[in-house]
Each structure stands twice: as C-alpha cells, then as structure tokens.
Amino acid sequence: MVEEGNFEARNKAVEEDNEPKGLCYFFWGPIHWFKMLAVETHWSFVFGVVSVYGISQGLGGALARVGTEYYMKDVQKVQPSESQVYSGITSIPWIVKPIWGLLTDVVPIRGYRRRPYFILSGLLGLVSMLLISLHSKLHLVFALMALTAGSAGVAIADVTVDACVAQNSISHPSLAADMQSLCTLTSAIGALVGFSISGVFVHLIGPKGVFGLLTIPAALVFSVGIVLAEPHMPNFAYKEVSQKFLDAGKAMWTTLKCPEVWRPCLYMYLSFAVSLDINEGLFYWYTDSKQGPSFSQETMGYIFSIGAVGAILGAILYQNVLKDHPFRDLLFWIQLFYGLAGMLDLMLVLRVNLKFRIPDYLFVVIGEAVSQMIARLKWMPLLVLSAKLCPSGIEGTFFALLMSIDNVGLLSSSWGGGLLLHMLNVTRTEFDNLWLAILIRNILRLSPLGILFLVPRGDPNSSILPTEMLSSKDETEAEEPKNIELVSLINSVDGR
User: Fold this and answer.
1) CB 105 within 8 A of CB 113
2) Mainly localized where (predicted)?
3) What's the count of helices (H) and strands (E) in the chain, helices before strands?
4) What are the tens digits of pLDDT across the range 9-44?
C-alpha cells in the first residue's frame, strides 16, 4: 500500500511538472485543463457540457432573448404589456423542471437514461426554430407555442446535462469543482459572445433570421444524444416507475411541511414575485425614435453584453468576498441596493442624466451592469440556501423543485409587470406613465425587507435542516446516482 501511494504521488508530481507555467499558462492552461477533463470523464461529456451550457444556453440564450424582443415588437407588433406576459408563458417549461429531472432519472428510453432526452431536446429546438424562421406570417398563438417548445428543449437539455455532471461528480469526486467551473465558464463566455453579436445579426438578417441561426445550437444538442458515452440498461423494470414517482412526491411533501424549509421557500417566491418585471416597457422605450433614446439593434446587443459582464463580476464578488456572510444580513443589504439601483432607470426616463450631460448610452450601460451584478448577488446566496434545504436521498429532485419555486416567482413577476404596464397605459408609442411604473417597481423591490424573518440567521457553513433530515433512511440508496441534479450557478435570474 505504501509503495502504491508513493507511485501515485510520483505520478501526480510528474503531471504537475508537465502543466504549463508562467505566461504560457494563459494560452496552454485552458487547453491542458480541457484535455484533462476529456481524458478523465470522456470527451463526449465535455462536448455535451460545452454544447448545452456554452452554445445552447449561453450563446443561444443571448441570441434568443434579443431576437424574441425584436420579434414581438417588430414582427408580431404586440404591446409591451402583452410581450411581458408572453415572455412569462415561454418560461413555463422551466417551472416544471422537477418533472424533466424525474423522467431522465427514472424513465430510461431503449435502455438509456440521458441520450434519448438530448435527442428529444434537439428535435424540439430544431422544429420550433425552423417553424418561426421559415413561416412568413405565423399567427401569434403558434409563434408562442413554437417559442415555448424551444424553451422546453433548452430546459430538458439543461436538466439532462446536470444529471450527467452529477453522475461524473460521484464517480470523479476530485473533479466536481472543475466540472462546475466548466459549466459556469462556458455559459458565461457563451452569453457574453451571444449578446455582443446579437444586435448585429438582428440588424443584418432580422429576428426571424436569428431564429434560423438557433437551429445550430439545437443540432449540437441533438448530436450530443448521438455521441454521448452512456452504459446501456436493457432490462429495466418499468413497472417500478410509478412507485418511484409516488415515493419522490411523498418525500418532497414531507420536507416542504417542515418550518425550516417552507419559510425560506416562501421568502424566495415572494422576493421574486413582488419585484415586478417591466423590462419590456423599458425595451420599447429604449428603441422608440420619438420619446426614447432610439437605440439601434447593435447598441441593444452591446448593452446586454455589458449586463452579462456585470453578472460575472457579481459572481466573482460573491465567491471571494460575500460567501461566508449570514444569509439574512447579506440579503438585507442586497435587497436594499436592488431597490436603489432601480432609481437609475427612473433618472433615465425622466432625462435627469441629460441635465448632468451624461449620454443615454453611457447611463444605460452603467445601469444595466449594476442591475445585473446586484441581481446575481441576490441569486447566488439563494442558490446556496436552496442547497442547504435539500434532504439526503432526494437532493437533486428537491433542488429542482426549489428552482421551480423561484421560477414561479419570476413568472408572477413577469405577469404582474405586464398588468402594471397595461393599467398605466404604457403602449408601443405612449410612455408618459413609464416613470410611475418604474417607481412602483422600485418601491416593491424594497418590500421583501419586511419578510426577512422567514430567512434563517445561520451562515452558509452551518446546517439548517433538522438532524433527522440530514441522514438518508437508506444509506445504500443514497449512494446511488439517482434523482440527482445539479444546477449551475451561472443560470440567469432574468429569464432565458
């Protein structure tokens, strides 16, 4: 045993000596890291993470957001309040993520748990994006159905690749952090590149052309289902599927009834729901040629890309400075600054920035970066808190349930914002009451401060659940890679 340990130590030392150092690390370091992950976990897994997180969610998500904004405004010609509601409808597939997670965990197709769901995801994206891009006069109802189907494809791929990450984290525990870093890095870079080029493509080929480009990420996800290395399970007991669904449902309901769980869940839902989303009204005003700054498609893409940079800075700030602070204290200051940051939008709409000779573009860029940074700072401690609320044995499924609760809050926020814009008569050409909508939104952003008592006082390093929930009823089952799903910290809080 001693000789074997010495041999492994010598091998590790040799590998460390072979790693790039100095200035060469900036070029060869990432290549060496990717190669290491591909060797240890299989190249098809790395290809799947890059395709789903980097290309589909990152790059494709950025293109889809900007393309959808202009598609609703210029092609379907809907009002901003209606567009706000429709954006909520297309996010519904993300609310039912636990269902996708359970399906990929307990319902294999033709002996495979992951590959068929990647293929299904890719097909949904291909068909829906082709329908929107090729149909000259697609009715709004069918357009919404196609957009929702495309969103479902991305959500299914997200759940499936998370399950792959979870399985590899179990078989390669020393690489768990590297795999999460791979998810985060590829998604962040993809989003930054996607937003940077989105406006250019909308200007050159139009919103429908952008949807045509989105068939490429869908095709890559489809190819992941073809090449992914996965063990075959020919003799699966499908009769046990219904019982597994019932067991998972009972376990989640039992956990939700615990006060240590439902109180933070209620806070997470309300904190998102009352922070009304009126981004569609602001977008219409940004691009209006009479009352607004009349930003071009390219400018809007660059603005969103700066927002992506702000989100990355928020993640870095939390990781290096704020991650050890108590949940309640941290959320108090973040929620306070979140409400104050919204005043930048109010100053812009009231044209206060021009009185200080600050150009609209510069002021919007600053506001977008600050807002996205604070939104990410709010999102990350809630992710950590959610992980602390998951009982042993159903960690992944319950975590997906908590993310769904957050997504229901975001849906309520989107629909509530659309209702507010409608009540204040903010239309495609009328923005007289937009300042009032912003003011109401900012005040409501401060309201979660009154329910912070629902959040535990503990810090991220302490346990929240009762002792009996921290140990699985059947330790042998808990060790199996079932019902486990990880969610990358890079997922955006403001929609897909």
Assistant:
1) yes
2) membrane
3) 22, 0
4) 444 444 444 555 555 656 677 788 878 888 888 889
Q: How many CA atoms lie within 13 A of 43 on its CB side?
A: 2
Shared domain check, 196 and 80: yes
16 domain-assigned: no
Residue 331 corresponds to which tokens in the numbers above?
Answer: 């959320």
CB 489 within 8 A of CB 180: yes
> Would you say residue 475 lies in a domain?
no
For residues 215 and 258, membership in a common domain is answered with no
Q: Is 118 exposed, middle or buried (0-12, 13-18, 19+ CB in 10 A)?
A: buried
**One-letter amino acid for residue 68 of the chain:** T
Beta strands in 149-269 (DSSP E): none
- CA–CA separation, 386 and 114 (whole Å): 25
Confidence class for position 129, pLDDT limits 50, 70, 90: very high
433-449 as b/e: b if 16+ CB within 10 A: bbbebbbbbbebbbebe
DSSP per-residue letters across 106-163: H--BTTBSSHHHHHHHHHHHHHHHHHHHH-TT--HHHHHHHHHHHHHHHHHHHHHHHH
User: How many domains would you assign to the chain?
Assistant: 2
- Examine the domain organization and report whether 245 and 224 are in the same domain: no
Whether 209 and 258 share a structural domain? no
Which pLDDT tens digit goes with each residue over 305-357?
999 999 889 888 887 888 888 889 999 999 999 999 999 999 999 999 999 99
Cα 305 to Cα 300: distance, rounded to the nearest angstrom: 9
Q: What pairs with residue 112 in β-bridges?
A: 109
**Cα torsion through 317, 322, 327, 328, rounded to 10:** -90
Whether residue 28 is contained in a domain is answered as no
Provide the whole-model pTM: 0.82
Compute the Cα dihedral for 36, 40, 41, 45 and give only its sign: positive
Which of 195, 229, 263 is where one domain is finished? 229
* Distance of alpha carbon 121 from alpha carbon 134, whole angstroms: 20
- Asked whether the beta carbons of 117 and 103 are under 8 A apart, the reply is yes
Determine the Cα–Cα distance for residues 439 and 343; give it in Å rounded to an integer. 8
In this structure, the answer to whether residues 346 and 376 fall within a common structural domain is: yes
Nearest 10 degrees: Cα torsion 350, 356, 358, 360: 10
Domain boundary among 187, 206, 229: 229
Weakest-pLDDT range from 161-175, 221-235, 288-302: 161-175
- Full residue range of the structural domain in which residue 182 is found: 38-229
Residue 234 forms part of a structural domain: no
Q: Does residue 390 sit in the same domain as residue 339?
A: yes
Q: Are residues 293 and 179 in the same domain?
A: no
Instruction: Report which DSSP code applies to 109.
Output: B
Bridge partner list, 109: 112
Q: Is residue 112 helix, strand or coil? A: strand
